[in-house]
């Protein structure tokens, strides 16, 4: 277990230091907490002064009742937990969506298909040639316009579990290259003289998956989901973090996903229906009974339609997993704490917000008299700040800590 401390030194500078690497017999939260407390005591650090903690997304770390953060909060009520912003959000959201079995199988098929199509430079050349022919045909039909920077011939992009945003790029590239990809796969199947039985078999399997209703449905669903969270993901990976902007993005992303979940089905279905028509893919009868060996309804006599399966078991379930992951990473208390704290570095401090921050989150750090006096001190601070050359240049909490010591 790696222990890193973040603290403010005597000069008001925020420091971050690696403290120790501790061997633990297991990763139970109780074991981690015992080891952590032992090391802090060894270095004569007062655990009561802990004012924050952050870990990755593992349940033994972030668990609300028995996770490490909960055990620390039990002894240090002001050690508020904020999920590590540097943790790659989109990769976590992909993992969350994979808890829906068809989504997990979709990503496996996606990787397989890209590997088949991009297995050789010859296949890659055929892919780009097919895309160029498709663009030429669409231009002649007047369905797309020509111009500088338009109609670029791209390629398929591989998704990687360690690359930020790669899954979104991979999904978008396949949608853009869908027709060309299908043409290349069909070409491999029909080329008896230059391909092996193994290559033809893989291509035929990949083509069957590509033309299936379920695969195309999930392909577009993941584009919508990952696209709606892309802006937040990019914002959270910035080295310099604007907390207030990040919290606003969290709220807007949650609202966007929730709106899509509750009211976006009809629009989404019409969008992918036009895609099926464009590429002549057979669409399932949404009113027909859905039957599958992997689908086991809760009751033996319960039969569901295709619409129920795609809307409830895929569309709604996937979005629920995304919202659940976002809510666990950015709970309301953490968001309010960060939002209130960010008001310390605005051009004019919001007195009411800082007083709320003190009363709600740090009441034992202040006496009743200090809380009463704080409101007037903050008012004086707002009058002095514009004329003070050091205070007026403050743009972050780190700058504020340093300038308060200097002044």
Polypeptide structure, described:
This protein is mainly alpha-helical and about 400 residues long. It has three domains: about 80 residues, no CATH class; about 240 residues, no CATH class; about 80 residues. Helices cover about 60% and strands about 5% of the residues. It is built from 18 helices and four strands. The strands form two sheets. It has a two-stranded antiparallel ribbon with strand order 1-2. A two-stranded parallel sheet has the order 3-4. A hairpin with a 5-residue loop joins strand 1 and strand 2. The longest helix has 24 residues. The two termini are about 40 Å apart. About 20% of the residues are buried.
Reconstruct the topology from this structure:
Elements: E1 2-8, E2 14-21, H1 29-42, E3 52-53, H2 59-62, H3 68-75, E4 80-81, H4 89-97, H5 101-117, H6 121-141, H7 166-176, H8 178-190, H9 197-210, H10 213-236, H11 243-263, H12 265-278, H13 306-329, H14 332-342, H15 351-361, H16 368-384, H17 389-392, H18 397-406
Parallel strand pairs: 3-4
Antiparallel strand pairs: 1-2
Helix pairs in contact: 4-10, 4-13, 5-9, 6-8, 7-10, 8-9, 10-11, 10-13, 11-13, 15-16
Question: In summary, what is this structure?
Answer:
This protein has 407 residues and is mainly alpha-helical.
